[in-house]
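Hi support team,

I'm opening this ticket because the web form for multi-chain structure prediction keeps timing out on my end. I have pasted the exact lines I submitted so you can reproduce it. The total is 624 residues across two entries, so I didn't expect it to be a heavy job. Is there a limit I'm missing, or should I split the entries? Thanks in advance, R.K.
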Amino acid sequence: MPAAAVEDSKAHKFNPNFTQQVLAATGQNVNLRVKQLTHSLIKHLHDFARENELTVDEWMMGVELMNEAGRMSDSKRNEGQLLCDVLGLESLVDEITYKLATDAADEPTATAILGPFYRHDAPKLEMGSNIVRGKQEDGDRTWMHGTVTDSMSGKPIEGAVIDVWHTAPNGLYEQQDPDQPEMNLRGTFTTGKDGKYDFYCLRPVPYPIPFDGPAGKVLQALDRHPYRPAHIHFLLRAAGHKPIVTQIFDRSSKYIEDDAVFAVKDSLLVDFTPFKGDPNAEFELPYDFKMATFEDAKNGMLNGSTEESGAV
Amino acid sequence: MPAAAVEDSKAHKFNPNFTQQVLAATGQNVNLRVKQLTHSLIKHLHDFARENELTVDEWMMGVELMNEAGRMSDSKRNEGQLLCDVLGLESLVDEITYKLATDAADEPTATAILGPFYRHDAPKLEMGSNIVRGKQEDGDRTWMHGTVTDSMSGKPIEGAVIDVWHTAPNGLYEQQDPDQPEMNLRGTFTTGKDGKYDFYCLRPVPYPIPFDGPAGKVLQALDRHPYRPAHIHFLLRAAGHKPIVTQIFDRSSKYIEDDAVFAVKDSLLVDFTPFKGDPNAEFELPYDFKMATFEDAKNGMLNGSTEESGAV
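Hello R.K., no limit was hit. The queue was backed up. Here is the completed structure from your submission:
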């Protein structure tokens, strides 16, 4: 189809009143935000169908892909979310959220998507603990440490809770892998007065997102690989501060320019440096977090939904 | 949001390269139509998110709605399809298909959506049979009859198979209702040399689409009712002709201006007229079908997907 036709979705040969008729069915007793979102979605879906002259077969293939994603989804897997991820939608919503927050406040640590492998009940560990559970696995042992500060005042935050999780060297999160101990490579740490934290983990490796479902079909249809660059997930909470959902990425990792879910940001690239003098670690990873107060961020919506979306 | 911002989705404050980055991940080894549809969908989804400054919560509510629809869907129910129906998408795809076909051929009978209650194995019945099975139910007994002709030549079509289905007077299709006999109010009829058909049925009544799932949630959120006006479904096939999926609507029915799934077309409105002299029917319904040959319609795509979509 010519680019001009795509640009101007009003210029088509189909019933020009149909979409308006669907929108006009909306009643009076509606939440205005729900109405805005639904009407916008209807307009985009209809424009998509008209611009591409969507056939019944193609539409039905899309319906079946959605239904299949729903049937695969349960408390351990969210295939609908993964389908959005490979289309870039979760990373885009994250970038919208972060942009609105930083427009309203001093710059906190950049955010990245939560992803489908978060668990809300990771064990509370003592500062300096190792999040590797059971026997030591393969992988480069790493000492990670830093300080959690307030993004405006620069002062350390006491009582900040750092929730960390990453994959095992085989590329699987513990809940995907019956051979890993429960809660392997997960933990939460609470800062003291100095805002400092430290723990031992492994240097993460790239891994494929699950590609045995609709998200995998989309990747295959687009001739794309399913790999994510090596990263560690964080969820930070502290009284009076907006939660931060983020990931940090190993700058030297394969796929760093080519994340299957488009979550990499420059400010989240980190360097694992060789570490001498600690018998428990071959690498060191210093990283500081900056959190915005609710007051700073009150005009934004920085990760405001952590509690709810964490449940999936 | 101001209308201007919605009109020009390029004018926003977010990373202007993000969508291009997602599209650029597509590999070389792709079907061009799959690429066109997926890229267009990604652009529309991203524009939708940016124009509305979609939050993580709102996005996640959409994911959960899709997942729930998938979990409810099985061989007897397609909730993903129903979700599209209440957003007008199935009727729009039907109108696109029909417009392309009529641009290429003489005007056949207008089409309407298949809906989720078609069964491919309805019983073959003798001309003049009653599709009410078991004891006569309540409802106005109707004698329907007409001729199937070729839309170009006007000649009767021999061997046309007419597949008909409609709801019982309680508003339920037989597969939704354990109290109805198997295949109640369904049947297929094959025309002879004269192209004529006739059978007895009931005058249909308005009924609600199932609203105990995500489609119902959308209707409720938009303060909309779930009712469809009274209608009878048809699927016509004949050798050398494009299949026709359609519905005819009782002009005097409630909801005729306000179908929950937007399928009504003026040319599909019919009149049930009081009928004297037949002890088996209180009403008469004459209706002729016009079918386009494959040659007439070869540049269009009139209902080309009947076989596949009928399986859902």
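A quick check on our side: The CA atoms of residues 248 and 268 of chain A lie 5 Å apart. Let us know if the file doesn't open in your viewer.
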